[in-house]
Structure formats: structure tokens, C-alpha cells
## 1
Amino acid sequence: MFQPDKSTYKLADGHEMPQLGFGTYKIDNPDLMNQTIATAYDSGYRMFDTAQLYRNEKMLGDAIKQVARREDVFIIDKVTEMNQGHDLTINSTDFSLQQLGTDYVDLLLIHWPVADHFFETWSAMEELKEQGKAKSIGVSNFTRSQLELLKTQADEMPVVNQIETHPYLTQQPMIDFDKKMSIVTQAWSPLGRGIVLDNPMLAKMAKHHGKTPAQIILRWDLQRGVSIIPKSKTPERIKENTELDFELSDDEMSMIDVMNKNQRTGNEPELVYELGKQY
Ligand SMILES: NC(=O)c1ccc[n+]([C@@H]2O[C@H](COP(=O)([O-])OP(=O)(O)OC[C@H]3O[C@@H](n4cnc5c(N)ncnc54)[C@H](OP(=O)(O)O)[C@@H]3O)[C@@H](O)[C@H]2O)c1
């Protein structure tokens, strides 16, 4: 049984992470942030995803304080490309904590892999965990070969890999590899930023279950063991995206699996790795 405020995944470091979180990319004014966070918290979301890049950490921290106690929420933040390297990772995270108005984040991620400072950045992440400034540490947009490279020098491995995945970019081999490494996969743009929502097959399944295409996709992720962080600024959709207590059959799961077109809405991780920045 799925309950947005209670269902969690156990991470390899022993911490629990909510299965469902709320994405805040492009929620960039305080009124909208206060409104969406209040609706999200009321609807049962307990995990909130931000990044240094989104420039909304302070707004998010302030909005959370209005509705919840720190210990009742799980905050994810991400170190941006230009803040990578040992000292910048440490200093920029200190600044992020100040912005969020908290002593720790529950999960700190490297936002994108970049070739320069690759190991140094991770070693700073390990230090931040040691200091209690991040309860858990992970990565985002890492490919299999980048995780294999990291493993050659890491003292501990990431516990989460946040990657783009939706029915048009199913990423099953990557998810299988994460699992083999005891890494929980978290889906960013789980709704493909809208591009998959008019798929006729999803509409058919939605009708059958009395649900919406967005709910079918989010349920598919939960059934394949993937954490989800959909974003919406629309109160009805924020709530709708938490109502996932139903079951897709094995056939329905397979029908979504084969919608894959390897179609990205975001950057290609290998290129960001080479360029050192998003393009
Ligand atoms: N790690 C990374 O590199 C990375 C990259 C991108 C995103 N992210 C994170 O992932 C989060 C989610 O990704 P995203 O915001 O790019 O895309 P998304 O969650 O896949 O899609 C958001 C879009 O879908 C619409 N939507 C939401 N729920 C809906 C529903 N039930 N029915 C119909 N439409 C719906 C939203 O519209 P309205 O808002 O108008 O309702 C919005 O236009 C981000 O906010 C961010 O926190 C991480």
C-alpha cells in the first residue's frame, strides 16, 4: 500500500528516503513557493528537491519552515558544476545550508558528473557526510562508466543516482546497474516535462484504472523500484501526483517498458562530463 507521507526506500547507508518527492525546478518566486509547498505538504509529500542551480534554496527553506518541522521533511540539494572541486564543494554547500536555514540536508547530490575534479568533488562529499552536513550522499546524471570510475577511488559509494527517466527514456539497464550497486534510482522529469502525457496507450490504461496518464507513469516507477520527484505548480496536479495506491498488471508494466525511444528532454551526461557544464 502506497502512502505518500510514509512509503520509503531503505538506502544503503541505513537511512530511509521517501519514495515520492516534490520537484522545485522553475518554482522561482516566494509566493508560488509558499503556495506549492503548503499544498504539497498537506497532500503528503515529505521530500523536497532543490539544487544550487535553481536559485530557490532560500525560498524553499522559508516555505518549509511555515508548514513543517525540520525533522519531518527530507531535503535534497545538489552541487552545481561550477562549484565542483574540493574546496568549492565544501564552501558552496555551507552557503546552501545557510540559504535553506538548516544544519544539514538529508541527501546531497553531485548535480552532473564533470571530468575535472571528479574524485576531489566526491571526497568533499564524503567529508560533508562525515561532518553531518549531509545525512546521505549521492549523484545525479551519472552513467554506468562514471559509477565504475568513481568506485576505483571512493571510500563509500553514492546511495542514490537521480537520472532522467520516463516512458520515452526508460533507462532500464542503468536502473538495473544502480540496483546491482545498491543505489536507489530517482527519476527526474518523471513525466518527461509533459511530452509523454498524450500517449494513447497511457490514456487507455488511465481510463481502465480511473486514473490519469501522469498517475499511471508515477505508479509504473514505484512498481519498478524507482523514486519520483514530479513537479507541478497546479494544486490539483500536486495532489493528483500523490494518489498512487493502485496496481498495474505485469502486462501493463511491460507495455510501458516498450514505449522507450531513448528520447531525452535534458542534457546528455557524457557531453556534460566532457564540457564541464550543461549546454
Ligand atoms: N538532477 C537533474 O539534473 C534534474 C533535471 C531536471 C529536473 N530535476 C528535478 O526533477 C523535478 C521534476 O522534473 P521536471 O520539473 O523537469 O518535469 P516533470 O515533473 O516531468 O514535469 C513537470 C511538468 O508536468 C506538468 N504536470 C505535473 N503533474 C501533472 C499532471 N498530474 N498532469 C498533467 N501535467 C502535469 C507540470 O505542469 P504545471 O507545473 O503547470 O502543473 C510541468 O509542466 C524538477 O522540478 C527538479 O526538482 C532534476
## 2
Amino acid sequence: MKVEPAAIPPKEIHDFFSSLVTPRPIAFISTVNAKGQYNAAPFSSFIRLTLNPAIVIVGIGRRKGQKKDTVNNIEAVGDFVINMVDENLAEAMNKCATEWPPEVDEIKETGLTPMKSDKVKSPRIAEAPISLECKLMQIVEFGNSPGRSTIILGEVVMLHVKDEIMTAGKIDPRKAKIVGRLGDGNIYCRTTDVFHLQRP
Ligand SMILES: Cc1cc2nc3c(=O)[nH]c(=O)nc-3n(C[C@H](O)[C@H](O)[C@H](O)COP(=O)(O)O)c2cc1C
């Protein structure tokens, strides 16, 4: 099978692309707007890119041609927090993908606990096993189609890791129980079935 992205409708390419690169970690992003209202939403177009500086990158599409609340907040305030999603957080994360109006605080709405961050204005989510406080470095956009994505580059300025997911000074995947997103739709995976490969 061969697929030329430019030759198929946007909805189909979205679904197909979502299944091409898997499993994907989920950046459960908490932000604050200029009025001090909190927001949280999940994004799986996400990677930790480099270490020096520590850069993360997130791709956020538009909704009916309009920027999503997360993008508006990051642009207005200049920072955000990426909360990693474990099995306990999965359901609340999924609920936060609902299209709520900008003034709705999804953290409160889903019974999660906002916590003051150390170095950024955006709150972090207390229940998350790992949270990355990020300062906005750059926003990049390509093209001018109504559905174009915004690429957010952020520098990680503070990390929070729950002590109970550590073993011998390292984050232990069997304890962290981070979930991954598989294809489009509602398929996720657990990350506790791990194996080792020695480097030659
Ligand atoms: C697991 C998961 C991953 C998602 N990944 C993305 C993504 O990478 N980019 C995107 O634009 N939307 C993604 N979404 C959809 C957003 O979470 C959704 O549009 C949300 O309502 C945006 O909220 P906001 O307007 O508060 O920013 C994802 C949803 C789920 C459940």
C-alpha cells in the first residue's frame, strides 16, 4: 500500500497519520489564561526533542479554524506544564479532551488538583506522576489552511517526579505506569510489559 498525504482528504489523513507513529506519549498540558483561569487538555503530537537546552515540542491543530484554548493561553502567558499520564489519570485526561468553553477549568471539572508551579505561571496537576514546567521558546506555523497546526517549542525549566515511581535513583516504568496512545480513536497501551536489550 502506498499513500500520498496530499492526495487524500484531511479527515482520512488525520486518522491514518495517527496510526503511523505509535505508541505516543501524551502531554496532558495545563495552562492559565490572562484572567487566571486554568485549562487542561491532552496532546499526543508530542516529543522530548533535545537535552541541551531541554526542548519539548507539541503539535496542536485548530478547531473549526480557531486556535484551541491551550494555544491561546500559551501565547498569552508564555508558559505551560506537561503532565505525563499514568493509568490512574487516563480517564480524567480523556474527559479533558471534551470541547469545553475557554472559561471552564477542566482540572476542577474532572476532580483533579491544581498545584502552583515553581517557575511558571501555569499550574501543574498534583496527581500526575511526572510534570514538566516549560517556558515557551517559539511558536511555528506552516501554510495557511484553516486546519493548520501550531507547533509549540518549550524549554523545560523544572521537573517534578513522584518519589514512589523511582527505583535506585531512576524512573521505573513498571511503577510509573505511563500510558501511550496507539491509533486514532480510543486505543491506548500500557507500558509495564518491558524488556531489555544490551547494546552490542
Ligand atoms: C489522547 C489524546 C490525544 C490528543 N492529541 C492531540 C494533538 O496532538 N493535537 C491536537 O490538536 N489535539 C489533540 N487531541 C484533542 C484535544 O485534546 C482537544 O481538541 C481538546 O479539546 C483541546 O482543548 P483546549 O481547547 O482546551 O486546548 C487529543 C485528544 C486525546 C484524547
## 3
Amino acid sequence: MHEYRISWRNPLVRWSISMLVALTVLCLLVGFLWLPSVHKDFTAQGLWASICRAAGVPSAWQVGGAAAPLPPQATQVALDRSMVRSAGSDSVGRGATLALNCTMCHGAQGMSTSNAPNLAGQYPEVVIKQLRDYKAGKRASPIMVAISKSLSERDIDDLAAYYTSLPKARTAPTTYDESLPALVRVGAPLRNIAPCISCHGGVDQKLGAPWIEGMPKVYLVEQLRAFRSGGRRSDIEGQMRAVARTLTDAEIDEVSTFYAGKAAVAGR
Ligand code: HEC
Ligand code: HEC
């Protein structure tokens, strides 16, 4: 009977171990030197990504991976009472000059005749927050992201001071009354939806909630749909996303018609 022992003296063992080492070296050379040199993609994302790809696991676990453009994200703006402080008259004057670049879409007096939002009488902290969000790419809009890029912090503050100084008297504020749509007046308690007037004025105005009376209907519908789908997601603590999440198309249409229609009611 033969005794099989693994011994370096055994030529078969010597041969197989040498072959194993040689194969390993060959594989490393092919994988890390030859393939990357003929196929640029192999090293494009770095060694770690190559290893992960070979093993079949994603190198970055977020959706889209590192290379995909980031979707709009949560805002970085912290609302601050100082944003509300009335600015000096030089601020308003400077803002008025800067606003000449905005009239084409937002109207000569901040009342839009297209489907862009009105800015006349808008709360200063809203204009500041939204412009900062666009500038940081937190709120998506190719037009506004491009425009806000060239605005300095001072420009943004002055624009806000100017717009808030314009009369919003052409749109009537909402006051509580039984004829208001239910969503506006009492919300939908079973779906955890607070009434619009508890934040947008009427009963209370939460810091950062925009003046929406008299806004173009198309704009209101678009924004509510964007909150619903998460396309607009820079609202602090998801306040509007929580409201819009379960709204139906018909409900969005109803509240938008209501708020857009407030313009006609204003007599002053
Ligand atoms: C070419 C048209 C255009 C111009 C010019 C323009 N805007 Fe806008 N703006 C828009 C549109 C459209 C929106 C809505 C975008 C969206 O869906 O987020 C908007 C949104 C805004 C908002 C958000 C309002 C809200 O209620 O949330 C602010 C603030 C604003 N613009 C300020 C400005 C200022 C200040 C300027 C000038 C420096 C300016 N815009 C120039 C088209 C324009
Ligand atoms: C809990 C408070 C709260 C409630 C309730 C609420 N909102 Fe808002 N809403 C906000 C805030 C805050 C924003 C500003 C979000 C941001 O920073 O982008 C906003 C933004 C909006 C905008 C975008 C306006 C613009 O100019 O950009 C619309 C439209 C809107 N709300 C409609 C409604 C409607 C309609 C209801 C009722 C069905 C409602 N909201 C209920 C807090 C609220």
C-alpha cells in the first residue's frame, strides 16, 4: 500500500503548487494591468469599484450610484426671524433694480401674467429661502437654478425686501368661513392632513409658508403634484409632502382653483 503524503519532495505537489502560484500571478496581471490598459472603463471608477463589480455587489449602496446627478434634496436653509426684519430703504431700492431681470416672468409689479408664481407681497423669508434652495440645487427648476446662481446673499435679501414692499392687496387673504373647501378649512383629520389655513394664513401663518392666494392655478397644481411625488422635497421637515402625499388629482384641482380664484375676489 502506498502512503500519500503532502511533501515538498513529492514532484507532483511541487508542480501543482507552482502552477497555482503562477496562475494567481497571471490572473492578477490580466485583471489589474492588461484589462485596464486595453479597456479604459475598467479603471474609470477606481480599484474598489472594479473589485465590487467583479464580485457582483454595488460599490455604492445609494440608488443611482455616485456618478448619477443628485435629485433635489432636503433644504439646508434654517429659517430665522431676522429674515423677516424689515430691511432699510436702500435695500428696497437696490432690490427694485435687480428685479428688472425678473419682470419678464414674474411681472412688472411682481404679479405674474404667465404661469410663474407672483412675488408681490410675498413674505421675505419665503423669497430668501426659495432663492437659496434654487441656488444650492435643492429645489429643481432649470430657469431659477440658473438665475439664482448669479445672485449674492445680499442680492437675495434685497430682492426679498423689494418684493415684500409691493402691495399684495390685489389678492384677498383667506379668512375662516364655512364656505371654504373642507381641506382648506379643516384639512382631512383621518389622513393626518392639517388645514391649509393653519399654516398659509387665515388662522395662522407658519414661518416659511408662502402667501399662495392669487397664484396662477397651473403653478399651484404643479407644486402640489411635485410635493406629492417628492419631486419638490426641500420643504423643512417634509411639512408639505406630508400634506400632499395622499391628495387626489381632484383635491389638488379643488384647492388650487380656490386659492388661484382669490385674486378675483380682491376689490382694492
Ligand atoms: C424666465 C422666467 C423667469 C425669470 C426671468 C425669473 N423667474 Fe423666478 N420663477 C420662474 C418660474 C417658472 C418659477 C417656478 C419654478 C418652479 O417650478 O420651481 C419661479 C420661481 C421663483 C421663486 C419661488 C417662488 C415661490 O413662491 O416659491 C422665486 C422667489 C423667484 N422665482 C424669484 C425670481 C427672481 C428674484 C428673479 C430675478 C432675479 C426671477 N425669479 C427671474 C420663472 C422666472
Ligand atoms: C403644516 C403647515 C402647512 C400646511 C398644513 C399646509 N402647508 Fe403648504 N406649505 C407649507 C410650507 C412651510 C411651505 C413652504 C415649503 C418650502 O419651504 O418649500 C408650503 C408651500 C406650499 C405651496 C408652494 C407655494 C409656493 O409658492 O412655492 C403650495 C402650493 C402649498 N403649500 C399649498 C398648500 C395647500 C393647498 C394646503 C392645504 C391642503 C397646504 N399647503 C397646507 C406649510 C403648510
## 4
Amino acid sequence: MASSRVRGATLGSPGDELETARAVRGLFAAITPRYDLLNHVLSLGADILWRREAARALAGTLEQPEALVLDLCCGTGDLAIALSTHGRATVRGADFCHPMLRRAEAKAAARDLRLKFVEADALQLPFADSSLDAVATAFGFRNLANYARGLREIRRVLKPGGSLAILEFSHVRWPLFDLLFRFYFRHVLPKLGDWISGVPGPYRYLRDSVKVFPDQEALAALMKDEGFAEVGYRNLTGGIAALHTGKKSESL
Ligand SMILES: C[S@@+](CC[C@H](N)C(=O)[O-])C[C@H]1O[C@@H](n2cnc3c(N)ncnc32)[C@H](O)[C@@H]1O
């Protein structure tokens, strides 16, 4: 069951945030070579449309040439690429997994995009207070060892009134579709993931982490608790994913 009381991702010893971060980094390093292929195959290409929706949600900021926008937990850079092709803002990517970042750099260079990527932990970002106009993150937030700390750190680096967009797996809201999707997600996806990635385990973690991740209402409530205003969300593909948005309020 999803719970609003889940503190963050757990991989390894429950409650050990440092160990979870290390294990998450190792897991993504192991699947980097096939990561993009797996994303597109396992979601039947929907991940591309979902990231595009995240970029659209920030259109107002992305149109401003002086704006600075961060793709947090950028992985191989697909959201950063979508953000930079949707406007004229300066886009940065941050991730703590070195092989994912190298791949992101190669993809940006192949498209002639002047994106910069920084190796950094989302819970301790190398950006000054109130320095960013928007932060967007796709399928990364769920992996943080402490969601409230993650939101506090995002709030710290955002300018007052700055925008946050979190694209994450969520909870399907159409009952029949939910049954079908659960079967796929629990039984088919982990096997396909193991097979295509050639690494046993990561896609079982994906299944388990989505199961315990706060649902739409719980994540929206957490965003409000952590000082975000104008909080809302939109279900994508019946709630397989949800796009959460909010703005840094002037005061907590
Ligand atoms: C599922 S991938 C998503 C990648 C990309 N955003 C996308 O849309 O495909 C999750 C990414 O989050 C990164 N990540 C997880 N926890 C992190 C943390 N605490 N700090 C920085 N990056 C983190 C992982 O290294 C991984 O690249």
C-alpha cells in the first residue's frame, strides 16, 4: 500500500539513508547501457510523451532566455533535452550517478545542445539559495532516501515563486486498467527488465518502490507541508504516472 508516511526510498537496511543512496547509485550505474531502451520498451514509448508534458507545464519559465532551469536526477538527460527544446532558458542537469551523466553529455553533444550536467546529490545540491527559476524531475524523486528533505532542498534552491514539476510513477485510477496494469507491473515488467538489462534485480526495485511511493494526494500534501503553493497534479495515462506541480511560496 502507498502511504503518506513513507519517509523515502529504501534499498538495503531500512532507515539507513546513506546506504540507500549508495545502493540506488549502484543500481542505476549497472543499468545505464540499456536504460533508455528499457524506458521506451517497458512504457511503450509513453515516457517520451510524459516528459514532454512536464516540459509543457514549465512553458512560461522555459520561454524566458534569462531563466535557469534544473533537471534534477536527470539520468541520461531526456528531460533536460525536452526542456531545452521547449524554450530558450538555460538548462542544467544534476544526478549522482556518473555513468548516467556521461551518457547524458554524449546525447546532448550529439544533438548540438549546450547543456551542462553536474554530478550532485539531490539532497545536497551545489546551487545557491534562491538561484533557480524552475526545477523539474522525472522518475528520480521516488528514489530519494528522504522525500521531505528532497523537497526542502528543491525549495532552498528555487527563487521565490519558482516552479517545481515532479513527474513520477503513481497510482492508476481506473479500476479495470489498474488490475491489468498491476499484473503487468508486478509479473511481466521485472522479468522483461532483467532480461533486457542483463542485470537481475533493478526492475524488481522499480516495482517495489512504486508500490510504496506516496499516491497523488499524499505527494501533493507533502509538497504543501514543505512550503509549496499552487500545488496540483494531473494523472497521465490513467495515473500510471502523475505530473505534480507547485511554486515556492514566499513563506512556509
Ligand atoms: C529512473 S532514473 C530517471 C532518469 C531521468 N530523469 C529520466 O527521466 O529517465 C532515476 C535517476 O535518479 C538518480 N538519483 C536517484 N537518487 C538521487 C539522488 N539522491 N541524487 C541525485 N540523483 C539521484 C539516479 O542516479 C538515476 O539516474
